Amino acid sequence: MTARNYVRKIASIRPVARFVGISLRDLTVTAGPLILLTIVAIAAAYWIMRPAPPDTITITSGPAGSTFQLTAEKYRKILARNGVKLRILPSEGSLENLKRLNDPKYRVDVGFVQGGLTAGVTVDKLVSLGSVFHEPLALFYRGEAPVTWLSELSGKRLAIGPEGSGTHALALILLKANGIEPGGATELLNLGGEDAAQALIGNKVDAAFLMGDSATPPIMRTLLWTPGIRLLNFAQADAYARRFPYLSKLDLPMGAFDFGKNIPPQDIHLIGPTVELVARDNLHPALSDMLIEAAREVHSGAKLLQNAGEFPAPLEHEYRISDDARRYYTSGKSFLYRNLPFWLASLVDRLLVVVVPIIVLLIPGLKLVPSIYSWRIRSRIYRWYGILITLERNMLAQPEPAERKELLKRLDDIEAEVNKMKMPLAYAEQFYVLRDHISFVRNRYANSKMEAEHDSA
Description:
By secondary structure, this protein is α/β, with parallel strands linked by helices. The chain has a domain at 3-38 and 368-456. It has helices spanning 3-12, 24-49, 67-80, 94-102, 166-177, 193-201, 217-225, 237-243, 285-299, 323-331, 335-339, 342-395, 401-419, 428-456; strands spanning 18-20, 56-60, 85-89, 110-114, 126-134, 138-142, 157-159, 187-189, 207-210, 229-231, 247-252, 268-280, 422-424.
């Protein structure tokens, strides 16, 4: 059989290539990573932005009837307007609130905590939504002669508030600064609120420390009007404020309670910490905004011990101001929550989490898919050219008969492999060009072989 006839025989038995409209495998390999990256970006956005705000949150407040509890009730009504339920969990006061917020076992989200309670406590997981009001310390005592300094209460019976209250914690700090400690001659009783007031009225204690986290405003008004009971004028208020940075000097003006009877009969200096709205650091940004708005509605007006617009305020003391709160104080609520109802703003916010990665990643990426897809198909064809060129050079280098036979078999194998390729119809032209080039190499080899045989004859 001549070389030309051999070529014709091989050409007649070549299998037909499989052509398809589009290669799903190549399309999947091309677009798959981009789609996967977009899905990961969407999932990461969901995880980072916590897009679904809960419709119920829990605040740890204070005893029934206390300023803390009454304030929480006002917050509840405001949050209810936006469809968010505020569950109020009573407590003994600031110290218990801080412990609950710091303990993952308690299902609380936010709470009122007065300053000065973080000694020895790790608060890395807690943030402040801002200071919301002053909490003056009211020290009522029984006696004809006025008391000027706390040290004058040494050896007496003192109601210092229930354990777990901020009143109790602050009373111990101030008494210790005046040389009065538990276990000494001074009897310290864990009474607060109504119990402390009745004990003072009934002459069972000589003085009572009262604050908003454990006492109600009516109780304090009752003591102010009770004969024989006085409100301590902290003559050393400036020194206390300097010694303890979380304390402020607060002035109660003469006649503030009753102009006609001039109660109190003189300006009274008080001291007290500010109360902060403390939250766990995973509080949803939308709920952070809503709580600060509630605080602004409740606390922004002028009151006896504060000016209008003084609270809430991002005053950073013992807790860092949360990023969401800092953003709110700087620029207010986000655009969506400012212009849409809460439920609708929440829905749009979640949709944006999905849409943004699609716009940023998927749409531009999809524009590259056709180019990458075309490159994959063409590279499948072009890789055979490198093999074919090497084979052609070896064939034209006058190889030995055994080597010629091996090279020709390799050329047949190449053609068989090419014919097995699954090609999109759009690339049929490139496929047939490759087939022609394989035939060209075979014909060239056959011609060179005949020329060599002719020369040898």
